[in-house]
Amino acid sequence: ARRSATRPGDFRSPDTVAPALPPAATFGELDLPDAVQRTLADRGVSEPFPIQAATLPNSLAGRDVLGRGRTGSGKTLAFGLALLVRTAGQRADSRRPLALILVPTRELAQQVTDELAPYAQSVKVRLATVVGGLSMGRQTAALREGAEVVVATPGRLTDLVERRACRLDRVDITVLDEADQMADMGFMPQVTALLDQVRPDGQRMLFSATLDRNIDHLVQNYLHDPVVHSVDPAAG
Ligand code: ADP
Ligand code: MG
């Protein structure tokens, strides 16, 4: 029923949108699995950054999220913790991941993978990184072995889907990271074609440094009543 409450595009109107849950002052309030709490502590992450405090209560509850934050504001854990916690305990079938993180570049894919790997390991979720410029063998092997989460650039993932090395029909959580950069780089046709293959009732989170016109149509067509966190860029 989450999807049927409003007409497409209505989410901007405050009276049609379910209110956002209040921000979490601490990670402890979020009821994260002990293994995740321990990993946060091990890595010296003690207090949530603002974008994490604002979005995690909502994303952990399954809400769509639209988040804007400058570089370094902590977007990776903002989407990553919710995605991993909500995926934990499920097993993917061969070549049919359960969650997808799309990023514009190979470097960003590696950064996101490196940042999330310890948390993923702590809850026994398997990550596969799927990017261009590297041989396909390891990537297709990770998919075949049943990675639950795929961190990918749009081009290589499209290629692997076309080769039937991956199917997106069980993807229940989709993240678009640095969405404005993906638009600037001309990836929107591939991104929307991939989004059209994931579960239509799944959760989507879109993060970006800017929320301007080039991502409007993603927001309008692929997010459903998102919780919006958008801080003044100057204030971070
Ligand atoms: P963004 O994607 O918004 O540019 P990142 O997610 O890459 O930012 O985070 C920037 C840095 O801040 C990373 O090194 C990350 O480990 C660190 N970080 C993220 N959240 C916290 C936090 N709550 N406390 C301390 N460090 C954090
Ligand atoms: Mg980032």
UniProtKB/TrEMBL annotation:
Residues 56-229 form the Helicase ATP-binding domain. This is DEAD/DEAH box helicase. A motif (Q motif) lies at residues 25-53. Belongs to the DEAD box helicase family. Residues 1-23 are annotated as: Disordered. Residues 25-53 form the DEAD-box RNA helicase Q domain.
